[in-house]
Amino acid sequence: MDMSKAIQMLSYNLKKPKTFEDQIELLKTRGVIINSDEEEAAKNYLKRVNYYYFTGYLLKYKNPDETYSPVEFKKIKDTILFDSKLKNLLLYCLENIEKSLKTNIAYYFAHNYEVGNIAYKYPSYFKDPQKHRILLEKIDENIEKNKELPYIKHNLDKYGELPIWVCIEVFTLGNLEHFYQLIERNIQNKIASVYSIPFNKLEKWLYSLRYLRNLVAHSQRIYGAILKTPVKPKGVTYQSDRIFDYILVIKELYLDSDDWNEYVVKSLSNLLDSYGSKIELESIGFPSDWENYISK
Q1: How far is CA 196 from CA 79, 201, 259, in A?
Q2: pTM for this predicted structure
Q3: I want to staple 170 with a disulfide (CB 3.0 to 4.6 A). Which of 142, 258, 264, 275 is the partner?
Q4: Burial of 274 (0-12, 13-18, 19+ CB in 10 A)
Q5: CB 210 within 8 A of CB 173
Q6: What was the pLDDT predicted at 15?
């Protein structure tokens, strides 16, 4: 079979692309309420928000026959906007946690060895030389991609190498997770003690943070989504399998209690107040007394 016929066969088995007008009509026939005077605005919205992304927020209304229980187009728009604002707040929190993790991992690693500033480059300071080699290749790739950043360029031009506290600034969360897994137990314990948790719980939470960061940074749906369940914080029995479980983890890793209470919790409260009539708390796993769970 030649390549063109193979492509045609693959294309034949997939749905065909629809115009924006077709998308509006399909939504209407399936139960989404779009009034005639709203159609142009709805079409313009679908020019900015992919139809396939939009319909992800319709899943809770979907019937076995592919129709939807009646729901207004505007309600789904509001839900998507709420989800976007929630993800922006989560990104703010994740950025703060990432900064503190980079700070403490670099600090305790560097201070554990006489040559701690550069020890990250050598396998003898890690549990698994083979995994270290793979990690170092990824770190070198990150340095190469970011070599024009002023602080990277300055250190390379002046010293030819980067100390760990400089290098770690171009680590991804995945790099941080793997670096932490490979360093010696006594260093892991010192880092985990900053967050008042055991070393193995921090290791698991690093994976959970990376998973969540990938979702929110790439604009995946959080509202209504069933997520991988992270390890619960100590003393917590509640579990929703939704984003609230991750907010409880974020709380434990958030070192600035004042910022958490005065900005994060208040921003979350204001967001929920603004969209209270437009969303369902159970779709994000929030119990009715959610504030009792997340205040520090």
Answers
A1: 36, 10, 19
A2: 0.93
A3: 142
A4: middle
A5: yes
A6: 84
